[in-house]
Amino acid sequence: ELDKFSEIENTKIPIQVDDEVKIMTCKEAVDSKIIPNKFVSYYLGILTEFYEKAGVDIQKSRFRKLGEKEKAFYAEVAFDFEVETTTGWLELVACNYRADYDLTSHATKSKEKFEVMDNDEKVLPHVFEISMGIDRSLYTILESGLREDKENDRIVLSLKPYLSPIHVGVLSLVKKDGLAEKTDEIYLKIKRKYDVFLDHSGAIGRRYRRLDEVGAPYAITIDHQTLQDDTVTLRMRDSMEQNRIKVSELDEILSKETAFP
């Protein structure tokens, strides 16, 4: 039994069964014997949640069970977490359930005992090995977020806001009439807490497109109305929706929108 299993038992994971990828909960995978136990299922669920929160499309992912000739000699069961990319299926994580192989081998050589007490029972700990490819994972996250919005003639990097290298762009509509100075003032207020890009140059539409391409989820535009009522336009990258908000509300909104869930 695994107490923590209840935390992820309803998490849906993509398991390749024969030649078909099936989406099922961690509990269903254990009950159907597709995954041998809750220990293995727990870590496959955690991995799925991690990549889903990183922006990878789980519908294009799979845990592929390795055959006897593919898996390492020490693994009782092994899965590769793979994602379908433009280059084909790409392995991101190797998952090996080593069971008690490591400590049993160590005990045999060292003549030491490695059992631990679990409540009132002596048990030999099992090992689940996760080997993650960082470069491949970063590439897949970036590719998953990159899309061409033909309707609006733009390229968009739709990264999760908490992963975006730039949280928000701060833009002056024009550089004259005191707008550049007001823009600088707002930029200085928020730059210590968020990753902010200040931009005064070029047409506002082209500046929005530049922010879309580098994955900035929000843009703040300072215009002549800002000088009158201390409000700004907050633009959302993915929907292109624009809302008028008070400058005093910026921190609360950005803090909520860029927080890790």
CATH topology of the largest domain: BirA Bifunctional Protein, domain 2
Q: Note poorly predicted spans.
A: none
Shape: elongated
The CATH architecture of the largest domain would be 2-Layer Sandwich
How many discrete structural domains?
2
How many E-type strands? Answer: 15
- Main sheet summary: 6 strands, mixed
- CATH class of the largest domain reads Alpha Beta
Rg, nearest Å: 25 Å
Mean pLDDT: 95
| CATH superfamily grouping of the largest domain | Bira Bifunctional Protein, Domain 2
Description:
The chain has 261 residues and is α+β, with helices and mostly antiparallel strands. The chain has two domains: 3-145, BirA Bifunctional Protein, domain 2, CATH 3.30.930.10; 153-257, Rossmann fold. It has helices spanning 26-31, 38-53, 101-110, 134-145, 179-190, 204-213, 224-229, 250-257, and strands at 12-17, 20-25, 61-65, 77-85, 88-99, 116-118, 121-123, 127-132, 146-149, 154-157, 168-172, 196-199, 218-222, 231-236, 242-246. The strands form four sheets. A six-stranded mixed sheet has the order 2-1-3-4-5-8. A five-stranded mixed sheet has the order 12-11-13-14-15, with helices on both faces. Strands 6-7 form a two-stranded antiparallel ribbon. Strand 14 (231-236) and strand 15 form a beta hairpin. The two termini are 28 Å apart. The mean pLDDT is 95.
Summarize the structure.
The protein has 261 residues and is α+β, with helices and mostly antiparallel strands.
Topology of this protein?
Layout: E1 12-17, E2 20-25, H1 26-31, H2 38-53, E3 61-65, E4 77-85, E5 88-99, H3 101-110, E6 116-118, E7 121-123, E8 127-132, H4 134-145, E9 146-149, E10 154-157, E11 168-172, H5 179-190, E12 196-199, H6 204-213, E13 218-222, H7 224-229, E14 231-236, E15 242-246, H8 250-257
Parallel strand pairs: 1-3, 11-12, 11-13
Antiparallel strand pairs: 1-2, 3-4, 4-5, 5-8, 6-7, 9-10, 13-14, 14-15
